[in-house]
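Quick one: Glutathione S-transferase from Paspalum notatum var. saurae, structure tokens please.
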Amino acid sequence: MAGAAKSGHQLQLLDFWVSPFGQRCRIALDEKGLPYEYLEQDLANKSELLLRSNPVHKKIPVLLHAGRPVCESLIILHYLDEAFPSSAPLLPAGDAYARAQARFWADYVDKKVYECGTRLWKLKGEPQAQAVAEMLDILRTLDGALGDGREFFGGAAFGLADVALAPFTSWFHAYERFGGFSVEEECPRLAAWAKRCAQRPSVAKNVTPPEKVYDFICGLKKRFGIE
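--- reply ---
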């Protein structure tokens, strides 16, 4: 699908600065202690490398491992765990049920949060009200999945589901502003979890500050002519 980029790094990540999907991959790479080269992409003028590496979807993130592309963020997370099993596994070893639960919640986040959040800031009137109600239901479901006394979705260990959701914590501020709700008031366990995640170096380093995410969305609204 793609030839190797000219670099001394075995791992390269084609990404876009504010993408929560790319940030998942950056968090996972740092959690696993894997050095990589970050290759920022212009999504308005997609590079030949990106188009060669992901000819099906033509989007980021793409992980290049010795020049071979791996596409889609959750697939990249699974690939990193399989390709580098000795470094800080994202999935618990020796417990198939716990691994299945982690995959379930990572998949839930993947299917629900971003798409609903996009409708929340793009729409007006009743359609937006429906998006707000759906977002609150999603967040409350995640709050319930954390349960009482659990530090992370898998228990004491920061793992796959946490990596999948952590980048979206910086989007919560925008969702709150456009949706007129408070995550801390509606989902206190989820808000506390977000604060714990923010203390991890891998998250603090790679997740865009909430105000910058909000400004980015405001720029999108202006570009699309959304008042």
